[in-house]
Amino acid sequence: MKRIIVLLILFGFIMSGCSKNDTSDEDASGGKPTETTTEVNPVSEAISKELKTSWDFNDYFYNHTKYPESVKLGNAVSGYYEYSYYENGGALIEKYTGKESSCVIPETLDGYTVFAVAGYSFSWNLFVHNVTLPNSILYIGCEAFKGCLFLRSVLLNDGLTVMDCSALRCCIFLKSIVIPNSVTEFNGGMFTDCWWLKSVKLSENITEIGPSTFWACNKLKTVDLPKSVTTIRYNTFADCDNLETVTLPEGLTNIGKESFAGCPKLKIDSFPNTLETIAFLAFENCKSLGKITIPDSVEKISGNAFSGCKNNVVFSTTKGTYAEAYAREHSISIYYSDTGETWTPNLEYKISQFFRKPEPTTNG
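RE: above sequence
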C-alpha cells in the first residue's frame, strides 16, 4: 500500500511539472469519425501560440510542407491507429491506442500514405518505450508525444519538415535524439522537462531555437547549435542545472529573455561577432561564466542580463565600446584585450552606482 501511495504521489508531481509553461493552446471542439464512434483529437483546430495564428490544417500544414493540398474524406480505424484520410491518398494519425513497448509507425494505413502524426496522438502513453517513424512522415504535431514518461528513443525520418511545439515535452527518460536536417520548423517547448536528455543533434536548417526548448533538461551538459541559428528565444536553456558549454555560432544575432537563466555551471568564452542583443535576465545566476569576449557588434544588453552573477563575470573588450560603458554602468569587471589592463569596481564605486539614477546605455 505504501508503494502504491508513493507511486501516486510521484505521478502527481510529474503531471504538475509537465503542465507548466505551455507553449500551445487547445481547442475544445472535435468531430465524430465517419466510420467509428471514437472521438478524434481536434488537431485541425488547435492553436499554435508561438505563431500567434489560428491553426487550420489546410491553411497551415500544406503551406509548410511539400504535400499538396487535399480534401479530407473521413475518419477510420486500423489496428491501434485512429486516422483521417484525404482525397490525395494521405493519412493523418489522430490517435494511437496501442500498449506495445516498441512502436513502428506504418508507412500506409489501409492503402493511405501516412504523412503526419497529429498533435496529442501519443500523449501520455505510458507503455511505449521506442518509436520509429516511416520515411513518409512530414509533420509531427503539438504535444504529439508529450508525457510519454518511459519513452527512451525516437527515430525520426529524413524528410520530416515540421516539429511543432512541445512534441516531445516531458518524455523524462528520453536520453538522446537526432533531428534530421530536413527539419526547417522546430517550435518551442520541444524538450521541456526531459530530465534525462543528455545528447541532442539539431537540424542544420533551423534558424531559431524556440522558447523553453531545453527548459529543465537537467542532465544536458553540452549543446552545439547549428550555424543556421540566428536567434535563441526566451527560456530556451533555463534551469539546465548541469549545462556546461553551448557552442554559439557565427550568425547568431539575438539571445532572448532568461534564455540561460539558472545554469550555474555554464561557461562561455566569447560571443559571436554577429551578436547584437542580450535580453532581460538572459544569464541570471550563471555563476561560472568567467571572462567573456564581448564583440563590437553588440548594441544592446538588458540592465539585468547578468543579474545574480555580476561578481562572477568579466567583460573582455576594448576602450570606447558599448560593452565597456555597460560594464562600468553595471559594476562588472573589465579586461581590456588591446592593452591587457583591467578594471574592477570597488565597494565605494558599487555603492555610488547603486544609488545613481540609471541611464540607458545605447550604441549610436
